[in-house]
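quick one before i forget lol
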Amino acid sequence: MIAVLVLNGPNLNLLGTRQPEVYGATTLAMIENACRSHGAGLGFEVTCAQSNSEGAMIDLIHAARGAQAGIVLNAGAYTHTSVALMDAIASVEVPTIEVHLSNIHAREAFRHQSYIAPVALGQIIGFGAHGYILALDALKAHLGGGT
């Protein structure tokens, strides 16, 4: 099995109850279960983590170096503010796909800027919880296994 990290940032632990009109009714536990299940079908052993702390997220990204073949990252609001997360991703050289539940380009102007995008393989935005599945498929294709 190929090790993959699915990492979620601040406030995503509140999914299912936090602004369901924006983020949907799917909980983080449901997303994590779907990622593990779909990932297993792709030959991935998916580890899921969530933190409201930027430093803890950086530590998880650092720990992925040499241990994970890829990262699926929803950095939440840190997407728009964290040079530190961008630097961590660039430093570990682990292929990373940025995911957002909502279409960040259809929202407030400050959400249009992503510090993650320049160091990510790509972005998957606006497809709700299904975006994580799309990201796992894209990571599989990137790693040479197709979908």
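fyi Residues 72 and 97 are 5 Å apart (CA to CA).
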